[in-house]
Design a protein that fits this description.
Layout (H helix, E strand, L loop, with lengths): L7 H13 L3 H4 L9 H4 L3 E3 L6 H12 L7 E3 L3 H13 L6 E5 L3 H4 L2 E3 L11 E8 L2 H4 L1 H9 L4 H10 L5 H11 L1 H8 L8 E7 L3 H16 L2 E7 L2 H9 L5 E2 L3 E2 L4 H7 L3 E18 L15
Parallel strand pairs: 1-2, 6-7
Antiparallel strand pairs: 3-10, 4-10, 5-8, 5-9, 5-10
The structure holds 1,1-dimethyl-prolinium.
Amino acid sequence: MKKFKTTGLVMAGSAAMILAGCSDDTANEGANGETNIGEAVEYTITGIEPGAGITGQATNMLEDYENLAGWELETSSTAGMMTELEQAIQNEEPIIVTGWTPHWMFERYDLKMLEDPELSFGEGDDIHTITREGLEQDMPEANAVLDAFNWSVEEMQVVIEEGQDIDMEEAAANWVEENQDQVDSWLEGVEPVDDVSIDIISVPWDSERASANVISLALEQIGYDVTITDVDPSILFQAVGNGEADASVAPWLPNTHGAFMDEYGESIVDLGPNAEGTMNALVVPEYMDVESIEDLPAAE
Ligand code: PBE
């Protein structure tokens, strides 16, 4: 379990409260008697891994919104964030996390995405298939399947959900078994190969663990020997850019991983979306009385 950072700001706030003899309850109330959400969450957004694209977006968000001066993004891990979210919901306490769809959090809990008028998180992404340069020439069959790979975020969500109870590999295999017609459409007209190795690189979030396993099973059906490696997004783009990895079905573009694409995109082939309509945002429990990032109170 990680340690939580206590900011100078929060410390100063607590010290002031003690000096003034205020109880926490009083301190959390604004002039109109309503709870000050900022104080209640200690002006802290509960984030995920430092290397995630959404973490970069949330860091920029702190600059994009004047009212977020003095707020802090606390990075940890997706599992750590989910644990804190679950605990807050159990106690009906306020919490603000960096969240996204597709994810099982929205199936399990009553949550809402805060409006983002400054578009720090963009207006949604598609998940793209990318390859190293030369893959089309070296492995035309794999390239054809990767290019044809296409499903919906709803279908992805089915695998993500099942992957909470059983291994993601197994959940992906079940999906492939139940949707062989669709898999066949990606394999249509592609000649089988004889045990050719291919390196698929991905990221360690459930959505991409689902898609990496599904595309791998499809490639295996025509004779590929697939290795999946999960890395940070920056490493993923670097590896495809320098040809160390063959392909990825994980990039969220144009926003979440846009900075990495800007950096390495010149030596990457973008085959376009394999799933459309993902969204990143600040996410809060429904019971919280806030609708927009703009409404979060500035830290005083
Ligand atoms: N995510 C899920 C990742 C990509 C997939 C939004 C947490 C990120 O890099 O932010």
